[in-house]
Amino acid sequence: MIYINKSVIDTKLVQMTIDSNSAYKIVDDASEIVDEKSNIYLEDRKDNYIRICPGTKIYRCCSYHNIDIMQGCPFDCAYCILQAYLEHDMIKVSTDTESIIQHVRSFQGNIRLGSGELSDSLALDNVVPFTKIIVPIVNELDNIQFEFKTKSANISNLLNLNPKNIVVSFSLNPESIVSKYELKTASVESRINAAAELIKYGYKVGFHFDPVIYVENYKELYTDLIGNLTSKISEDRIEFISISTFRAPQALLDSIKVRSKYTDLLNSDMIKSPDGKYRYYKSLRVDMLKTVYDSLRAEWKDVFIYFCMEHDTVWESVIGYDPGDRDKFELLFNNSFFT
Ligand code: SF4
C-alpha cells in the first residue's frame, strides 16, 4: 500500500506516483503505517541526500556518491545489509526531489552518483518513478554519471528517455544462489535480458558480482553464469564490472542466524577484518575473485573491472596491481567514462 504524508501531496514525485497508482492513503506521519516491506511511505524528510560512499583507508575505495532518496527495499535478500542498518521495514521515500536536483547541479568536476545504496534503484520504479525525474536532469550535465543498480528487470520507465550519462547495472549471481538467497528478485536470466534490452535503447550497462557467495561448486556456477552473460551482452556497451565477496558486520551475521534457513550462508569460515566486518579467509577470497575475474577476462579483454572494498594485496594477487588511494582509484573510473 502507498502512504503519502499530507504535507507533500503537491510535490512532483507524489503527483507522478498518484498518476500511475490508483490506491493510496494520505497520513499525518509514519505512526499510522504498519511497519512492513509491502508499505511505501512518501515522506516529508529533509536530509543531506547525497553522500560519498563511506570508505576505509584499509581497503581500496573509490569516490562514488550515493543518493539516498529511498530507504528500504521490497526484495528480501538473505544477506542484505539493510537488515542491520535500517530501523524500519517499510520503504520510506523522500519527495524532496528539488533539493536533490539542486545538489546534483551544484557539483563541480566529474562525479559518479547512484541510488542503489539503501534500496534497489529500480524495484519500485513503476510505483514511484524517480527515473523519470532524474534521467532528464543528468542528460543535461556533462560532469555527472548516474547509476541505477538493480536486481529487478523493471526497466519500462527507462525506455525512450534518450540517456546520455546513465548506467544501469545489474547485480548477478548464479540462479541457484538467486533463488535461494535473493528472494522476490528477478531471475538472473531476466536481468541479463533487461540489460540487453537497455543496450538497444542507448544505455551503457554495468554488472556487479557482489556478493560472490561461497558454495562448494562456486567455480562451476560462476563460470557458467559468465559464459551465459558474455554470450548475450556486447563488451563495448559495458561501463564497468565490480566483483566482491560476501562480507558482513556482526549485526548482519546475527540477523542471518535468526533466520535459520539461511545459516548455510555462513558455512565457510570467516575472519574479522580491520574494518569490523567479517570476510572469508584471504586465500579463499583471492580464489573466488580470481575465478570470476579470469572467466570474465577470457571473453572480455578490455572491460573495466574493479574490486569493491578489497585490500591492496588482494588486488595485487588477482590482477597484479594496486589501484591506489581514493583519488587515484577514482581516476581509473574517470579515464574510463569522462573521456
Ligand atoms: S536488492 Fe539490495 S537492497 Fe534490496 S534486499 Fe537485496 S541486497 Fe537489500
Q: Structural class given helices, strands, pairing?
A: alpha/beta
Round the mean pLDDT to the nearest integer and report it.
93
Give a list of the ligands.
iron/sulfur cluster
The topology string of helices and strands comes to: EHEEEEEEHEHEHEEHEHEHEEHEEHEHH
Question: Over all CA atoms, what is the radius of gyration?
Answer: 20 Å
User: Which overall shape is indicated by the principal axes computed on the Cα atoms?
Assistant: globular
Which second-level CATH architecture applies? Answer: Alpha-Beta Horseshoe
Describe this structure in words.
With 339 residues, this protein is of the alpha/beta class. It has one domain (44-71, 111-337): pyruvate-formate lyase- activating enzyme (Alpha-Beta Horseshoe). Helix content is 34%, strand content 22%. The protein has eleven helices and 18 strands. It has helices at residues 12-20, 82-85, 97-106, 130-140, 175-181, 188-200, 218-232, 250-258, 282-299, 312-319, 326-337; strands spanning 2-5, 24-27, 40-43, 50-52, 65-67, 70-71, 76-77, 91-94, 111-114, 144-150, 166-171, 182-183, 204-212, 238-245, 247-248, 270-272, 278-280, 305-307. The strands form four sheets. It has an eight-stranded mixed sheet with strand order 4-5-9-10-11-13-14-18. Strands 2-1-3-8-6 form a five-stranded mixed sheet, with no helix packed on it. Helix 7 links the parallel strand 13 and strand 14. Helix 9 crosses helix 10. The model has no long low-confidence stretch (mean pLDDT 93). Iron/sulfur cluster binds at residues 73, 75-77, 80, 82, 119-120, 151.
